[in-house]
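Researcher: Let's try something more involved. This one mixes different molecule types, so please make sure each is placed in the same coordinate frame as the others.
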Amino acid sequence: MTQMQKTSIVQFGVRLVGLIYLGLGVLGFLPFDFLNPHHPEGVGARYLLNLVAVNTLHNVIHLAIGVSGLWAAKQLHPSHPLRGGRVRLWGRVTGVVLLLLSLIGLGQAAVEGFPKDQLLLGLLPLNSPGHILHLISGGLALYLGLAGPSTRT
Amino acid sequence: MRRPLILEFRLLFYAILGVIVPFGVLLYFFPGGTDSYWAWSIPEPRSAMLIGAAYLGAISYYLAALIHNDWQQVDNGLGGLILFSLVLLAATMAHWDVFKPYHPITLVWLAFYYGGPFLAPVFYRLQIEQMGPATDEGVSLDPGVRAWLIGRGVFYAGLALVGFGFADVLAAVWPWSIQPLELRVFIGQIAIVSWGGIVAIRSRWAWRWHRLGVLLGGTIGLFQLIGLVVSAKPYHGSSLIGVFLPIMFAEWLAVAAVLFLLYRRR
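Model: All components are placed in one shared frame. Result:
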């Protein structure tokens, strides 16, 4: 694969992950029960699209991942492959953080006897759809971070 | 000119086969044991077989895709399978309360259907960048066949939309006792078949565009027909949907059989 192709695919992939997270972050703030129903039986979280347990902090983190991803993708242009370092760094950091969050969340769930949802560090509501979302998106972000164009060309 | 699949797609297809083979075999051949092995409890074995048939049918698609290794053939069928993933993700959203949240199958199920929106666009782009876009090569479909594909595509797309939206109503008149979740998951199969018409509308007339998608629909139709016949559970064949279902599955199979007979030697 040429340097130009790598640049283009990394930009596309990071923008996609950023857009999905930005969308999830915005949707998470909508207080409509048909969209994000409240589940009082567990840790009292709303379930984003009836799947992912979220609260305000969790939504802010989704927004931050989305905005930073879109910003990182904008830094990268096929005609400026030397600026690929930032987007590679974004992919690596985001990927590692999301994968770690997924593994820690799954571990905590195992320790707590696999409850319907859980609270990480007393702050962040998590559940199995959230763990898998973090796992898949983290894996893709890390792939993009590792596959991205080198800064030394 | 044949454009081979990129490594990422080939690895993804092997991983998908690793999931759909056990999914299909369990649901289709052991439909009575979903309480223990499946992500949610499916009380009626006919419903388990209805879902399992899609996974068994999809095995033919992925095996053929790996064997032929030709992007032009994979491209459009893949669109149908991505649509299927999105329908099943929407069904999961609508019925998450029914799922066993940490059952291993649930975790695989979630990964499988999250994977579509995240991985498919990136790999698709990677495929085009590395190998170039597939071109409209090979023998063209006859005008009558095109019209039939477009017509059935529009019909099945409408059916899928109405069925997904009104699954509760549809479940009440289904030929056997079925839960809305199973019905919505089944609607994903109708969406796959409707995709063939969308491909045709995009003016992709070469048979090679349609080959694997048609194979997929035909194989699912075959397994569905066999499932309807071999299941010993009650089936209310006198109801409207009871009559329509076998006709629809026969149409899926017949379209595949006729098109393969028509274009195989050309």
